Amino acid sequence: MAQKLKIDNKLLPLAKRYSDAIVAVAKDRGELDEVFTDLGTVSESLNLVTKMKDFLMHPVIPFAEKKDMIKSVFQGRVKDSTLSLLFILTEKNRLNLLDTIKYCYEESMDEAKNIVKVDVVSAVEIDGDLKQSLKERLENKLHKAVKFVFDINPDIIAGLILKIQDKTIDGSMAAKIEGFKKILR
Q1: Which strand (E) or helix (H) includes residue 178?
Q2: DSSP collapsed to 3 states, the chain
Q3: Are 58 and 69 in contact (CB under 8 A)?
Q4: Number of helices (H) and strands (E), helices first, in the chain?
Q5: Are strands 145-152 and 115-122 parallel, antiparallel or unpaired?
Q6: What are the residues facing 162 on neighbouring strands?
Q7: From first to last of its 185 residues, what are the pLDDT tens digits of the chain?
Q8: Of 25, 79, 134, 177, which one is least surrounded by beta carbons within 10 A?
């Protein structure tokens, strides 16, 4: 299952341009999955070792020193295309885009593999049988493979809210109660 990630929508257009470029390179080299894994590894590393991220984002430290740091940590551990992206992001002081680039990259990769991401909000944890049944029904309806992102929100009382691309299907009890309130007014 995919992880829920908070993305700054203002960064999406710029991150999408970087993502499109790295996807094109990775596709040409047959490294789509590997580069995605690399982006996760680098992002996780930078989020865990904040001193390294601070060093790479410091405006006074020369790019040559930052480049040496990136090489010493990641060269041989990630694909050359991922390393090049890190150099570019560091040189242009855009390392803060990395998580958003990874998000955009994953969407492009899913699209290439005919996978659709579905956000599912429920009041309680959904059991495995219901998840499987929901997956099968959606795959038959959408004619695509489905990747779920689950979230729990007790405020919906019961039922599910599905977000598929730009569509929202609100089958929650809270929405039904709100509808009844409007009718009774």
Answers
A1: helix 173-184
A2: CCCCCCCCHHHHHHHHHHHHHHHHHHHHHCCHHHHHHHHHHHHHHHHHCHHHHHHHHCCCCCHHHHHHHHHHHHECCECHHHHHHHHHHHHCCCHHHHHHHHHHHHHHHHHHCCEEEEEEEECCCCCHHHHHHHHHHHHHHHCCEEEEEEEECHHHCCCEEEEECCEEEECCHHHHHHHHHHHHC
A3: no
A4: 8, 4
A5: parallel
A6: 120, 169
A7: 444 566 788 999 999 999 999 999 999 999 999 999 999 999 999 999 999 999 999 999 999 999 999 999 999 999 999 999 999 999 999 999 999 999 999 999 998 889 999 999 999 999 999 999 999 999 999 999 999 999 999 999 999 999 998 899 999 999 888 888 888 87
A8: 177
CA angle 50, 8, 142 (to 5 degrees): 120
Question: Which pTM was predicted?
Answer: 0.77
